[in-house]
Specification:
Blueprint lengths: L4 E8 L4 E8 L3 E8 L7 H14 L8 E6 L10 E2 L2 H9 L8 H14 L5 E5 L9 H4 L5 H7 L8 H15 L7 E7 L3 E7 L2 E5 L20 H10 L4 H10 L2 H6 L4 H9 L3 H25 L4 E5 H6 L1 H7 L12 H6 L5 E2 L8 E4 L4 H13 L2
Parallel strand pairs: 1-4, 4-6, 7-10, 10-12
Antiparallel strand pairs: 1-2, 2-3, 5-6, 7-8, 8-9, 11-12
Helix pairs in contact: 1-3, 10-11
Bound molecules: adenosine-5'-diphosphate.
GO biological process, one term: acetyl-CoA biosynthetic process
Pathway: Metabolic intermediate biosynthesis; acetyl-CoA biosynthesis; acetyl-CoA from acetate: step 1/2
Function: Catalyzes the formation of acetyl phosphate from acetate and ATP. Can also catalyze the reverse reaction.
């Protein structure tokens, strides 16, 4: 990239639209906002709001490209990809694997193509970072022919965030990314873990879809597949009801009746036992994954925590990583409390593994990838 770029980044979620206008190479955020609670059919209004805000800030003419976060790129789309109708059709089709995420991205892309028809527009995929996962990590142990015929394999998501925070944590620690091994934890409404060796991922917790792995806001993560068979055969469930259970009525929501950590913590403090159990299950799952990934990596230099929950809930960081002294992880309670959203090292000086809180910035990461692709 030789010239300066001004990139509009759109991150369309299931019920919200985040956007940022980023100047590069400085990374300065010129404008940004989070339009929340978009219901079905509300996309036109939300998008008009974004376009109007960009116009009002006098930034419309200066835009050089648009970047879109897309959760699932499937086998075909690995790196950042210039958008055209064919790519859009693929993204739409991959909605079967990411039904909460790809459809809103398509809504955003269609509107952005109409609003800024002369700008290059690029999809950056959450699965992209995990393209080179080793086969032992991408394979499900089911009939090989069935898996091949149906395209059943593990992909991994939140890659934009895992890649970004792994890089930032190395900077915070003053280490070369190529020299260290890390376990990264993205704890937001969606949540996932990754094992990163020398900057490249070797394992991650999400699979074919974003349902696998950690406990999340409304998704429960790992589940014995026998539970699904049981509900189908004996519970009167069909695919649609299972879909609803797994995407909307599981995780913290399913266990405690709320998917928001602020409400969960308030309920625990008010003595709610279901909220307490949900919190403990959430922490227990994180601890299991950290232990497993330390085994995959044969030890690590750092555990990195990010995401809306990871950045904001200090007691969750302390509780989830408690009792891991034998594995070399010791969170320092004072450092942790004072860390805010980071970047900050929150481990004790005696901790063999550094624990680092890093605020993620998917929009900046996307803008950089877009500028790299479209820049001169
Ligand atoms: P997404 O996966 O949608 O990008 P975020 O990373 O923004 O989600 O995380 C959203 C979640 O973070 C919220 O549902 C909430 O549980 C939690 N969260 C955000 N801010 C706070 C806060 N100040 N205190 C406690 N929890 C918070």
């Amino acid at each position: 990239m030789t010239r300066s770029e001004v990139v509009l980044v759109l991150n369309a979620g299931s019920s919200s639209l985040k956007y940022q206008v980023v100047r590069l190479p400085s990374g300065e955020e010129l404008l940004g906002d989070h339009v929340e609670r978009i219901d079905r059919g509300g996309w036109d209004a939300a998008f008009r709001e974004v376009v109007a805000a960009i116009g009002a800030a006098g930034l419309s003419d200066g835009l050089t490209a648009v970047g879109h976060r897309v959760v699932h790129g499937g086998e075909r789309h690995t790196g950042p990809t210039l958008l055209d109708e064919d790519v859009l059709v693929d993204i739409e089709d991959l909605g079967r694997l990411a039904p909460l995420h790809n459809p809103p991205a398509v809504e955003g892309i269609r509107r952005a193509l109409a609003a800024y028809p002369d700008l290059p527009q690029v999809a950056v995929f959450d699965t992209g970072f995990f393209t080179d996962l080793p086969e032992v990590a991408t394979s499900y142990a089911i009939d090989h022919d069935v898996a091949s015929a149906e395209g059943i394999r593990r992909f991994g998501m939140h890659g934009i965030s895992h890649e970004y925070v792994a890089g930032r944590a190395a900077e915070v620690l003053g280490r070369d990314l190529q020299d260290i091994d890390q376990v990264t934890l993205h704890l937001g409404n969606g949540a996932s873990a990754a094992a990163v060796r020398h900057g490249r991922p070797v394992e991650t917790s999400m699979g074919l879809t974003p349902l696998e792995g950690l406990v999340m806001g409304t998704r429960g993560g790992d589940l014995d597949p026998g539970v699904l068979l049981h509900l189908l055969r004996h519970g009167g469930y069909d695919a649609d009801r299972l879909d609803d259970l797994l995407h909307h009525r599981s995780g913290l929501q399913g266990l405690a009746g709320t998917n928001d950590f602020r409400d969960l913590v308030a309920a625990i403090d008010a003595g709610d036992n279901r909220a307490r159990l949900a919190y403990d299950v959430y922490c227990h799952r994180i601890r299991k994954y950290v232990g497993a990934y330390l085994a995959v990596l044969d030890g690590a230099d750092a555990v990195v925590v990010t995401g809306g929950v990871g950045e904001n809930v200090a007691r969750l960081r302390e509780d989830a990583l408690a009792g891991l002294d034998a594995l070399g992880i010791e969170v320092d309670a004072d450092r942790n409390r004072e860390a805010g959203g980071g970047p900050a090292v929150i481990s004790a000086p005696s901790s063999r593994v550094a624990v680092v809180v890093v605020p993620t910035n998917e929009e900046l990461a996307i803008a950089r990838k877009v500028a790299e692709l479209v820049g001169d």
